[in-house]
Specification:
Number of domains: 3
Radius of gyration: 25 Å
Number of helices: 11
Largest sheet: 18 strands, antiparallel
CATH class of the largest domain: Mainly Beta
Structural class: mainly beta
Strand content: 35-45%
Distance between the termini: 42 Å
CATH architecture of the largest domain: Distorted Sandwich
Helix content: 10-25%
CATH topology of the largest domain: Beta-galactosidase, Chain A, domain 5
Length: 664
């Protein structure tokens, strides 16, 4: 049953192709365009099924091949012909139960469905901001898939922002935490021995930019992109795990010691994941692209009213290094009561009890310094929820009993960590955990795993994911920087919400930053950290700063603690990949505008012409006059504005701002 409503749907009748959509001179050469007509896709079959894409009458995707190869040597392309085809025009509205960007998504596209002489079908959907295709099969019995061919061939010599996987010791290349830097390199320098995970952003020599990703990943491995030493990349997939072993340690994980020569065994009659090409003539078009969500299967949960996202504290990054307290801080009852008090004081919905509250290998062996009954009662008194961290292997083993215990404690949100794979077996693990959590009215966040890729629409209780190089890396490295932050809205975030865990209060300039465990800094300014709460999609937003430091700045914390995490509407006002972004989000009549820059200082002018008539009180947190030298310097003040006003803001190197607009 679809969890969406439609005001206008034009999909009722299968029609013959007409000239504005389909070139019917040959049944083996078909064309379909986007609703605006700017994007045109050509599909044909010779020795292989091929497609090409043009934008504004210019080729942006050269002939590229599609195939699905089964173990008994039957493939989509082998000795196949187009049997029939039809087209439909769709104009729907999707109502989002958890509105990461907006409550209502307009899902408008033209679809070409092609049936072949063998039991294969291929659907092409063409939006005004991209193209997607998926393969379906109609075999009676189960099938074994040897490989899928997904080629993406680009003209000229484009570059790309590539999150290349670096092989971890003792495991094959398909093991990854999906936490890498995005490096810009020429596509023909991306070697055939290298793979990257998606989203994968291609920068042609002339616009538009093209992002490759996928959606509706179910009972099937995720798609990596492999280089070819040319301007082409190809999908590559982890083989099915037939032997696994446990990598023992504090944070044990399951690793594959032997893979099959096939990628999946699955039902013979089904649809496979969508392969997506987002097409963006302007950089600001990328962060607001909704194709991944639209293409995912609708919610499988009948009731989603119990899903209550919000903001949350976490102690992992700062190591519970509290000060100005009369007790010994650490993993103990007194420290967590302090976190509960802090959450209650500044408007946070939950606190996270991260790794260490129990034995990582047994969730029922609770840290003897922690009294859960005391904490549960205290949190209930303060109207603050408790959330729990788990190790994925342990949660998998103790799932039913653990969820029962979490319910007794009033826990409605958990994290599970150290998965580090996206082969078919791992993908099915995510589904099993989400379904079990939903049956217990518990939200789930996956860490150490791949991006959501539409899973958050199908299972709205799977509220967010990590799969990002975020704040925790500041503990021991200098990898994370404002330059990196300004790539995420145009790369990783295209595949769904991300758990970056912003909010660090100890901020440093580029010159002063040092990775210091226990006294963790963030590179960039305080206002840069604050702006992330409006720029990065995540229905659960973590405050990773030190609450003892937060108590010293109550006005700032009051501002931060009351920033929404779900939105009625999102507009990207201005953006440049890797340089800056300005995002405006609406919640119940109020607007929040977040802006961030890379290590370059920048002057930006904000127009309020998107506002309704009337006066608004603007609360502004911007870089202080000395933020270039002392990155924690900020200015917090209020002024009145209306839709006819403009505001000029100076962003320090690694800087940012956040504006709240309250209608008077």
């Amino acid at each position: 049953m679809k969890n969406s409503k439609s005001r206008f749907i034009s999909i009722g009748i299968t029609i013959l192709f007409i000239l504005c959509y389909i070139d019917a001179h040959s049944i083996d050469t078909l064309k379909i365009s986007s609703p605006s007509g700017k994007i045109l896709v050509k599909i044909w079959i010779g020795k292989q099924l091929s497609y090409a894409i043009s934008y504004d009458n210019k080729i942006i995707m050269q002939p590229s091949h599609i195939d699905l190869q089964l173990n008994h040597k039957l493939s989509l392309s082998a000795n196949n012909k187009i049997k029939s085809y039809n087209v439909k025009k769709v104009n729907e509205e999707i109502i989002c139960p958890v509105p990461e960007r907006r409550k209502i998504i307009h899902d408008v596209y033209n679809q070409l469905s092609v049936a072949f002489s063998t039991p294969y079908l291929v659907d092409f959907r063409v939006y005004d901001d991209g193209v997607a295709y998926r393969i379906s099969t109609r075999f009676k019995d189960s099938i074994t898939i040897k490989n899928e061919v997904a080629e993406f061939c680009f003209p000229g010599q484009p570059s790309a922002y590539i999150a290349q996987i670096h092989k971890m010791d003792g495991v094959d290349i398909f093991h990854s935490s999906f936490e890498e830097l995005y490096i810009l390199k020429r596509l023909d320098h991306f070697s055939k021995d290298s793979i990257a995970f998606s989203p994968f952003l291609v920068i042609p020599q002339a616009n538009p930019k093209i992002a490759i990703t996928e959606s509706d990943l179910d009972d099937y491995p995720g798609m990596f992109l492999r280089g070819t030493d040319s301007s082409q990349v190809r999908g590559t997939f982890a083989g099915y795990p037939i032997e696994e072993k446990i990598a023992e340690g504090l944070y044990s994980s399951s690793i594959v010691s032997r893979r099959a020569d096939y990628i999946a065994k699955t039902k013979g009659s089904r649809s496979f994941p969508w392969r997506i090409l987002m097409i963006a003539p302007a950089d600001k078009d990328l962060p607001s692209n909704d194709m991944v969500y639209c293409l995912a299967s609708p919610s499988r949960l009948k009731n989603t009213s119990w899903i209550k996202p919000g903001n949350i504290t976490d102690e992992w990054i700062v190591g519970i290094n509290l000060f100005n307290v009369p007790f010994k801080s650490g993993l103990n009852t007194a420290s967590y009561k302090y976190y509960i008090d802090f959450a209650w004081r500044f408007g946070f919905d939950r606190i996270m009890m991260d790794a260490g509250w129990s034995d990582t290998h047994n969730l029922f062996h609770i840290n003897p310094d922690i009294n859960m009954d005391t904490l549960v009662a205290y949190a209930k008194q303060k109207h603050v929820k408790i959330a729990m961290w788990t190790l994925a292997l342990t949660l998998n083993r103790q799932l039913d009993s653990a969820l029962t215990q979490f319910n007794k404690w009033g826990v409605d949100f958990i994290m599970t960590d150290f998965i580090q794979r996206d082969d078919q077996k791992s993908v099915n693990f995510h589904k099993r955990i989400a379904e079990a959590c939903a049956a217990n009215k518990i939200m789930i966040m996956y860490h150490g795993t791949y991006p959501p890729k539409g899973f958050n629409r199908t299972y709205p209780n799977a509220i967010t994911r990590e799969a990002v190089l975020g704040s925790e890396y500041n503990i021991g490295s200098d990898k994370v920087s404002p330059n990196h932050d300004l790539l995420l809205p145009f790369t990783r975030m295209l595949a769904g919400s991300l758990d970056y865990e912003p909010g660090l209060l100890n901020n440093a300039s580029k010159k002063d930053f040092r990775p210091i465990e226990g006294d963790v800094m963030s590179p960039g300014t305080r206002s840069h950290q604050l702006a992330m709460l409006a720029v990065f999609d995540s229905p659960i937003q973590f405050f990773s700063g030190n609450p003892s430091q937060g108590y010293l700045e109550p006005k700032y914390m009051d501002f931060l603690g009351h920033i929404p995490t779900t939105w009625d509407q999102t507009n990207i006002l201005d953006a440049k990949v890797g340089q800056y972004i300005v995002t405006a989000r609406k919640k119940e009549g109020n607007w929040f505008i977040g802006g961030m820059t890379n290590w370059d200082s920048r002057d930006l002018t904000i127009s309020f012409d998107f506002l309704n008539e009337g006066q608004y009180q603007a609360t502004i947190c911007e870089d202080g006059v000395n933020a270039d030298r002392y990155a924690s310097d900020y200015r917090l003040y209020t002024v009145l504005v209306n839709k006819n006003n403009h505001m000029s803001l100076h962003l320090a190197p690694g800087g940012g701002f956040l504006i709240k607009l309250k209608k008077l």
